[in-house]
């Protein structure tokens, strides 16, 4: 029996896929990593037991395992490897909600949006909201410690993880944490897996902390004729109140969105902010008024406030639409750098300088309230020289962020695309500590080799 | 040069203390662990460099190091060991606040209350509020992932840790994370140290996330003639709103507090709830009205609501005073078990059964909103048989909690007192994973041996 036949025999029919056309579609995530190989198989288990069988087999034969959620990752965390397998969690889709403990137990293959929808039926809310929430999986969110728009107030994925079931490299299944809001028994190992990008284990079950349904928000939109003015307003706001959203779009993004949506955005603005407060009752409106006034004080050319959720949502949708809209101009290298908030304007102007130097269009959108920006580097893949300039810019933007005390990745993960820059941010001691943990949990190095570490 | 002289020579004068009277005062934390030894020295470094020197020395000579904050721990996490040293961080007291990034960088020796006070000068707030906040250190809070009263809404210590500087067993200093609200570069190792009870490294600097100043709260106090009624009301509340406090006291605690404070508490009540909402404007009062109504629906014999912060604070102070008040009745074994919220009433009745079986007074107070209870086992240390019964009860309470899907420790840590029960909660796979991480970071086992793991 060949190595692969052994795997096929260990799992229910149809779990192991070797059809070349299907394999092709699992080679890349959205990062379209050019180094992608072709896996020997795609494995789609339906249970923790099956994941254990896969990893026992992979350990025994030293086969590289690339865990994959819905393949929406932007850093090449799920790039397939020649001779390895892709372990897709897409078929693991159970969820149960306990409204009394305000927790949900979800399998990793559910979409973020499906988790939100299911818990909403109980009047509950799962806050983290990556822009890709309608197409990304909750398992992938765990792998990258995904963020989103509401994180400025509500925190990131790890803040909602109470417990995990994880299958380790050798096939051992471990339960960490559980539906207890406070639990300090043993090391906080559940947190260690949130953001580990599939390098330490495969998450097969997630116990999520939920909140009561979100209140409807008051929304404020403001346009500025300089990026600095907008960035200064952000800092003035976050020092005083806790907005539930504080999003930034630059001129390129505004125009790209307006090209598509024709909603009357100001094409001459250098920057647009979309801010919201979901504090209840008059407090939300007070926050909105405070933000509008702060925007004005900082030179906003126009502000618009609304307490109508649909009207507000239209602007949020415009912000969410920025990436596909800019993508209409060419292929994108999508950056994810973050800085301490006071450095936001410097980061944006640094990006503009890089764009000018390399004769590139780089649009900046940002979760401004937490200093996390997404410079969108536009290039034509048919123009090899341009693509090379885009790659250079991609690296230089990370260098600028690190130089400002920032991070090479705020919420997308290191994956394979950003790995060469990781040591520059972490330094040798923290890199060594990362390697020690990896070595302790995956001594054979079969889990997502080449990603993150 | 003796081993100890080598340490003395490596550090500034006065850093290493060997005076027997002083050593005596560092043998125990508040758990008064009877197994405590006498350390060869107490070392009180003032900087990361000095901590590195201590750990290099300890590694070279395989000397056990017991890290210690202010010695207020309740699980024996800082019990001294014969022939080891106690590394006290009490002299490391620097703090700087950046109101723009809404972060503080604190050394571990500051009291929690000092951190709160310093950041309040900038209009900011550090939420976690263990009842011991006036005497416990922020470093100790990191070690145990401390909780408190406001955690039901605002989360626990780990939710506020953005970055750490940690000295590892071999003396390497590592920076993890930093003043960035989102950062997923590398494994989330800063979180691994929060709650690691000094077993993986010594934290020398902490970057804390802060919030804008808390709004003043509306407070609701309610008395019940059964514990079940109070527990049911808790679940009805947390499913609907996010109170900023939801505290429980049983009849023994009510009477003990009333004995001391004479504030007119209902001595006939079986349970008292102290609840609050700090939502802004009318929302806080709405929440308070909702909680009062819910208490009444669930059979409260009396409810009292106030939006006067001083009046509210008097009841919070009464709740905080419960432990010293009950302590007036005898020595205490202070438990810290937690359960998923629906099991709260079962846990409390289980404790009552254990008290009856062992002819003991056990008072239960609880951070009810997150299912975290503190059964206070009263005993007379001069009565050996009673002390033994108290010890039995201490273990049985943990067994009941684990049997209800709960935890042996919600916020105090495992330390040495609860270590025999840890495997029963975690199971063999998670225990093995804990040991693997410990082995990877502290292969010689010099850091807090015998604690937690």
Task: Describe the protein.
The structure is a homodimer of 453-residue chains. In chain A, strand 17 and strand 18 form a beta hairpin. In chain A, the strands form four sheets. The first copy, chain A, has a seven-stranded antiparallel beta sheet with strand order 15-12-14-13-17-18-16, with helices on both faces. In chain A, strands 5-6-10-8-9 form a five-stranded antiparallel beta sheet. The mean pLDDT of chain A is 96. Chain A is α+β, with helices and mostly antiparallel strands. The two termini of chain A are 34 Å apart. The first copy, chain A, has four domains: 3-88, Uridine Diphospho-n-acetylenolpyruvylglucosamine Reductase, domain 2; 95-212, Uridine Diphospho-n-acetylenolpyruvylglucosamine Reductase, domain 3; 215-324, Alpha-Beta Plaits, CATH 3.30.70.2190; 329-442, Alpha-Beta Plaits (2-Layer Sandwich), CATH 3.30.70. Chain A has 15 helices and 18 strands. Chains A and B meet through strand 9, helix 7, strand 11, helix 10 and helix 15 of A and strand 9, helix 7, strand 11, helix 10 and helix 15 of B. Chains A, B: Belongs to the FAD-binding oxidoreductase/transferase type 4 family. Chains A, B: It comes from Mycolicibacterium poriferae. Chains A, B: GO terms for molecular function: FAD binding; oxidoreductase activity.
